[in-house]
């Protein structure tokens, strides 16, 4: 699946004086022997020395057995996903647009619903924003785009701006 256009837009932004404003990144989780009838919980925060990660996609390994797992993804008190990891979810992945910070982490639960050890693997993709100042510049670029004539991309910018404005008390 291609990178969302709004993420491509963010990756094209450059700092004054050179260098990119955001950088493509991701994290990987592998559980080679996930015990039966067990729930694991993870709290996802940005990398060390990074202000935020704008997450946009989770790709689940094709080796994960369909319907063996159920899970939830919660961010800022809202469930972004809750359900069984069906073949459709495994084949298509999960798409979202979330601002993950130390103050607003991503909380994930995953349950092996079977009576057998299972394998779990995933890769989450996003872009890193290294500082609060960069975060504010990203918001300004999105605000400019939201008020431009590029309708489809402007709508994506508005959605991301809402996530930024109403979720972070520090940068409202």
Give an overview of the whole structure.
- Helix 3 (132-146) crosses helix 4.
- The chain contains four helices and eight strands; from the N terminus they run αβββββαβββαα.
- The strands form two sheets. Strands 1-8-3-6 form a four-stranded antiparallel beta sheet. A four-stranded antiparallel beta sheet has the order 2-7-4-5, with no helix packed on it.
- It has a single domain (5-166), classed as Jelly Rolls, CATH 2.60.120.340.
- With 172 residues, the protein is an alpha+beta fold.
- 24% of the residues are buried.
- Strand 4 (69-75) and strand 5 form a beta hairpin.
- It has helices at 5-12, 87-92, 132-146, 151-167, and strands at 22-34, 39-44, 52-60, 69-75, 78-84, 94-101, 106-112, 118-129.
The CATH top-level class label: Mainly Beta
Measure the end-to-end span.
Answer: 33 Å
CATH superfamily: Nucleoplasmin core domain
Radius of gyration, in Å, reads 17 Å
What count of domains describes the coordinates? 1
Based on DSSP secondary structure assignment, what is the total number of beta strands?
8
Question: Helicity range of the residues?
Answer: 25-40%
CATH architecture classification: Sandwich
The unreliable regions are 168-172
Quick description:
The chain is of the alpha+beta class. It is 27% helix and 40% strand. The strands form two sheets. A four-stranded antiparallel β-sheet has the order 1-8-3-6.
